[in-house]
Write a structure and sequence with these properties.
Layout lengths: L1 H8 L12 H18 L10 E5 L12 E6 L6 E5 L3 E5 L5 E6 L10 E4 L5 E5 L4 E5 L5 E5 L11 E7 L5 E6 L4 E5 L5 E5 L12 E6 L5 E5 L4 E5 L5 E5 L1 E2 L5 E2 L2 E7 L5 E6 L4 E6 L4 E5 L14 E5 L4 E6 L4 E6 L5
Parallel strand pairs: 18-19
Antiparallel strand pairs: 1-26, 2-3, 3-4, 4-5, 6-7, 7-8, 8-9, 10-11, 11-12, 12-13, 14-15, 15-16, 16-17, 20-21, 21-22, 22-23, 24-25, 25-26
Length: 333
């Protein structure tokens, strides 16, 4: 240490480096370079899949405060993100901010679900107000439905909205009801299923759901740490997933995206394990992406995933990092 301090003190002096220390300095420099090269962190292979990142912490345009819902529009590929400041923001597919608006009320709590229909309308599960509010793509409210309660057609804490090919509306909820309710296109209540009295298909916080092309509804049964399947009439078709952090295990799956093949797969936002996981449609583990952290290719508590079929991209809502990471998902497992 004494020699090193001497070198530092005398760096600006005449005759640098001192002749007596020249050989030692050369050896020191070579050894230092060896250590730097040998100890440098290896590139995170998950970062190679990231095409772009947008968003940062804040309350300004294009910034997020704990985003908890994301959806892609079939109209123009626009990206909609809802955060815990009760804001809906719209982005171009490349991540450029376009517009945004705030929910009409937020003191009781913030939304946790957002979906875009075929016309580009934005359906928001206004979770803590026990209702669904529908906006146009610019944020003008079109209509709302739902009221607080446990009766037919009522909600406690709605989490998602999706549709079947006949235009029927499916709304998931939790907080005691823990069920999925079905409405006609005219918003008339039809039935509920996946409730706690279902012997096999009961859910505990069905956080997200989506229909595939064959009419099967896929649901993240979050607090049971599994993925469930139902037909359009609400009949339970099966499930996969067990609690844990190993391959094929899940820890609070919050959302899913159906990937068209071949082969057809699905990707799950495995929120508690800080990763996204891809499965075959019969539940076989295929691969995982992500690890806990702040760097590119790392995630903290991802709440949502969405699939851009045209560009073969996977949008990952990296919630605790207040950003969206867009992944190249063009290769098949």
């Amino acid at each position: 240490m004494a020699d090193r301090n001497y070198l530092v003190r005398n760096r600006s002096g005449r005759g640098w480096p001192p002749r007596a220390l020249g050989l030692g300095l050369r050896r020191f420099s070579a050894y230092t370079l060896f250590l730097i090269a040998g100890c440098a962190p290896a590139e995170n292979p998950d970062a190679r899949r990231v095409r772009r990142v947008f968003g940062e912490t804040g309350l300004g345009q294009g910034q997020f405060s704990y985003p908890r819902a994301l959806a892609l529009s079939p109209v123009g590929g626009r990206v909609f993100v809802c955060d815990k400041a009760a804001r809906i923001q719209r982005f171009a597919p490349d991540g450029r901010f376009e517009t945004g608006w705030r929910m009409p009320e937020w003191e009781a709590g913030k939304p946790t679900g957002i979906s875009i229909d075929a016309r580009g309308c934005v359906w928001v599960a206004d979770t803590h107000y026990s209702r669904v509010i529908v906006f146009d793509a610019d944020g003008s409210e079109l209509f709302r439905f739902g009221s607080a309660g446990e009766g037919p057609g009522q909600f406690l804490l709605p989490t998602f909205v999706t549709w079947d090919k006949q235009g029927r509306i499916y709304v998931g909820e939790y907080g005691g009801n823990d069920r999925i309710s079905v409405f006609s296109p005219e918003l008339k209540y039809i039935r509920s299923f996946a409730a706690r009295d279902d012997p096999a298909g009961a859910t505990d916080r069905p956080q997200h759901g989506q229909f595939d092309d064959s009419g099967v509804l896929w649901v993240t049964d979050t607090c049971h740490h599994r993925i469930c399947r139902y037909d359009q009439d609400g009949r339970f078709l099966g499930s996969f997933g067990n609690p844990g952090s190993g391959p094929g295990e899940l820890n609070y799956p919050y959302a899913l995206a159906l990937i068209d093949g071949p082969p057809d797969t699905l990707v799950v936002a495995d929120q508690g394990n800080n990763r996204v996981v891809e499965f075959s449609r019969d539940g076989r583990f295929l691969r995982a992406w992500g690890s806990p952290g702040r760097d590119r290719g790392q995630v903290y508590h991802p709440w949502a995933v969405a699939w851009n079929r045209g560009d073969r991209e996977l949008f990952v809502l990296d919630s605790w990092n207040n950003r969206v990471q867009v992944l190249d998902w063009s290769d098949r497992p």
